[in-house]
Write a structure and sequence with these properties.
Blueprint (H helix, E strand, L loop, with lengths): L9 H15 L4 H16 L7 H5 L6 H4 L2 H8 L4 H11 L11 E3 L6 E3 L2 E3 L1
Antiparallel strand pairs: 1-3, 2-3
Helix pairs in contact: 1-2, 1-5, 1-6, 2-6
Length: about 120
């Protein structure tokens, strides 16, 4: 599905790619796109902050953002090409998880399973 592109700066793209790598760098590409889509679905939702930075750094939401891993990746310049491509796709409006706004390690929770994450 394409839910509509969201205008973003190069910094937003890099930040989203850093989060994707932190959360799903070891997952299949579809899982990386899914994580990006979750962030963008939250940006579109009135229940969450309306910026990529605001969503990623919202208190208690994404562990790698809280513990500094996202910042380290952002500053390192070593984000994988697939995570950058997944971020570009998500920013362009592509979603392979519909309008879902959450994911976690697949622990048997009902939802859409991609790699070792379940989206719900």
């Amino acid at each position: 599905a394409n839910l509509g592109a969201i205008a973003a700066s190069a910094d937003d793209l890099t930040l989203l790619a850093a989060l994707i790598q932190a959360e799903a760098g070891n997952q299949p590409y579809e899982g990386q796109v899914g994580v990006g889509a979750v962030v963008m679905n939250r940006v579109r939702s009135s229940a969450y902050p309306n910026s990529i930075h605001g969503v990623i750094y919202a208190s208690g939401q994404f562990t790698p953002a809280m513990n500094g891993k996202v910042n380290r990746l952002y500053e390192s310049g070593t984000i994988s090409a697939s995570c950058i491509r997944a971020a570009e796709e998500a920013l362009s409006g592509v979603s392979n998880v519909g309008d879902l706004t959450h994911f976690r390690r697949n622990n048997g929770r009902e939802g859409l399973v991609i790699g070792n994450h379940v989206f719900y």
